[in-house]
Design brief:
314 residues; six-stranded mixed β-sheet; alpha/beta
Length: 314
């Protein structure tokens, strides 16, 4: 039994017609011959085809810009990205050479970004051996070479600003296989950065020279590699940094080795000859240079990759 009884408000049943949809629209899915004919006309319209071609061209350019930005990001992510550039000189080697496959083996697969080697060096002591190796890299790869000046350096001689030979500049950055960026900066020893996300910086002219020479792909057996390393260490630590007596002793050792063979390690020029000759040019000073060493240095001077080095010393 209900607690309360309520009388009905209306004495009869009320019928209300409710809509089955909110808005009434014509059916667009019906078979309409006129609509199909209009669609076919739009497909054949030259203006529509021109618009599609323009869209494809825009997308192609966007992909190219993306690859260029990825290449720049390698330089931007380095600690020298905030360099205050007082002078910028960009040099392009216009002679394209094969070697991308070799770089992929040595440095890993490249996905559109330019492999850029960034070297910081003090203009008061230019790393001559690295400039020689730069010339050798240009003979093997298509190299984009640039020179920058860091704000820590107030004055750089003009011949150091133009240490890379001037060539054609009408090529895009992503057309190159390798970048070689030299930054004149107030640093105690040369520093190299490459693929900053995957490897630590390399310090010292000898260590950087070993890395660059490895890019040339020349294979050496363990004994030869050990001899080359020994000559490089002797040149960097004793000839370049030693006293007059130490320098004279090193030159006598070099002279004795050159009496047995035309080059320091066997019958062919090696990294030991490049680094040691450059150190002798810079660090020998007033110390007398023996006859065999003078003849050997003349042989180095006749090599095309040493042309730029001797011009810097003139």
């Amino acid at each position: 039994m209900p607690m309360y009884q309520v009388k009905p408000i209306s004495g009869r049943e009320i019928h209300v017609d409710l809509p089955t949809c909110m808005y009434r629209l014509p059916n667009i899915h019906r078979d309409d011959g006129d609509r199909d004919h209009a669609f076919q006309d739009a497909e054949a319209d030259p203006a529509v085809k021109a618009l599609e071609a323009r869209q494809d061209e825009i997308m192609r350019r966007l992909y190219e810009l993306k690859a260029a930005v990825e290449g720049l990001s390698k330089t931007i992510t380095t600690p020298d990205a905030d360099i205050d550039v007082a002078h910028l000189s960009e040099v392009v080697n216009s002679k394209p050479l094969a070697g991308t496959a070799d770089l992929d083996i040595l440095l890993g697969k490249n996905y559109g970004a330019l492999r850029d080697i960034v070297i910081n060096a003090n203009p008061s002591h230019p790393p001559l051996s690295l400039l020689v190796l730069h010339c050798l890299l240009r003979e093997r790869f298509h190299v984009l070479s640039t020179v920058h000046v860091h704000s820590s350096v107030s004055n750089v001689p003009p011949h150091l600003l133009a240490c890379f030979e001037e060539q054609d500049k009408n090529q895009s950055r992503h057309d190159f296989q390798l970048g070689f960026t030299l930054i004149w900066k107030d640093v105690p020893t040369p520093q190299m950065k490459f693929s900053i996300q995957n490897m630590c910086p390399i310090e010292g002219e000898g260590n950087i020279a070993r890395f660059l020479f490895a890019l040339l792909g020349q294979q050496q057996d363990p004994i030869t590699a050990t001899l080359v390393d020994s000559w490089i260490d002797m040149a960097i630590f004793q000839l370049a940094q030693g006293s007059s007596k130490e320098k004279a002793a090193v030159l006598r050792t070099i002279n004795a080795a050159l009496g047995r063979s035309p080059w320091l390690v066997g019958a062919h020029r090696s990294l030991a000859d490049i680094v040691t000759c450059c150190v002798v040019l810079q660090a020998a000073g007033p110390v007398a240079i023996p006859a065999n060493v003078q003849k050997w240095m003349k042989s180095c001077e006749n090599l095309p990759e040493f042309n730029g080095v001797y011009k810097l010393l003139q």
